[in-house]
Known about the structure:
heterodimer, A: alpha/beta, 12 strands, globular, B: 229 residues, six-stranded mixed beta sheet, 6 helices
Amino acid sequence: MWLNENAPIHKHDLVFSKPFVNSAGLLGFAPDxxxxxxxxxxxxxxxxxxxxxxxYPASNRACLPYPGGFLLHTGLPNPGISxxxxxxxxxxxxxxxxxxxxxxxxxxxxxxxxxxxxEGLENVMAVELGLPPDCDSEAFRKFMQASVGELPVIPCLSxxxxxxxxxxxxxxxxxxxxxxxxxxxxxNAEGNLLTGRLYGPGTFPTMLHxxxxxxxxxxxxxVNGGISSKLQADTFLNAxxxxxxxxxxxxxxxxxxxx
Amino acid sequence: xxTKLVEVFQIGAEKGGVLDLPEDAWxxxxxxIACQRAKGDSxxxxxxxxxxIGEEGxxxxxxxxxxxxxxxxxxxxxxxxxxxxxxxxxxxVALLPYRVSPGRILCLMREAxxxxxxxxxxxxxVPPVEIMNRLPAAVEVSPISSLLENxxxxxxxxxxxxxxxxxTFSTLFEQVDLKLKGQVLVRTAMPCRGVGxxxxxxxxxTKGWQLAxxxxxxxxxxxxxxxxx
Lengths: 259, 229
């Protein structure tokens, strides 16, 4: 169950009407029912990663398929927090589902500034923190302290970050934790190595393994996991995840278990 | 929408196929459609296919995955993106596949000939025999250097290239005050097919960064020449 009816509900608790969300970066900045016909099957919409200043596409941007999935390297282009708020706040407010804004944590000061800009916006349910790959426990603590405010804060961790940040997570106990796709490296057509997140069904076993550790620690867990079937989704939900982040399956013409 | 893959063929280095779609569902030259096998497709991404030259009256597309077979049932999208649009007062059309297979750009040939325009095809490599066999006698084949020497001949230039080749393509026209109209089909991965604005297919243009999946993949020549990355 994604909603425990017996437990008391606190201000910063996250409750999803449906157990699916999208992975950040895979459905754009605002939910658009015309482009995303299955949007009503999601319990919340997670925006593209947003930084304080605008970011442009990486010069070596690429989508590199491999057996079982693909690596995505984009540079996380976005118009920056100020333009994002002015461009999308109406769409967020009018969206048929709650919105979680994904923020790129670059330094604690700019993160605090970004969060202030989101507080009070209609229909924004929470903020997610996209942590730098080399984030250590001290930096993580500072990011979490800078994020304290009106909105629940959900740090995003990839499996390789759990050993580094677990102790601090246990101490800080955020409203929820979002376990996101692992990073990987692949050579492009020219033989140059590209780093990016890995998507696709091939990540499922890794994500299931990593999720058990966080669920055993009692975290409210949203988990992305290369989910491509109802059986896989049920496996995560039965293990105790509060929501599942769907990735590349949302780009399919027919996301099998959503339509 | 579902359709059947009627037959498969080789076109240069690409594998192509014939789709059993009604003509009003065909992509225009330069547009694409997303396809996935209705059952048993293990590929996490859709395939983006473009119309290519082939037998008249059939929808010939490429590239399709190697393991697709005749008889496969496919789920397909409606035509997506912006395709080529030939100007109405067309007289001389230059078709230029730049370091890519000519199958996609040659789809424009029939439309241009039907408009009464003269068509020339510019390439530094000899097209595959299955393509040469489909070129009418009225279409002249010349090397790219002859286009550069006669830039006052075409009134429309249609180009097909990989995104990564845009900078080197621009150098061909470095010393030229290019006045002719033209459009460029920019080949790039479009994994999210516009649903996600993922940014992989971003193209730098004179209007800023644009997405090939939504704003292209065919762009005005003047928007991408000398600026594109």
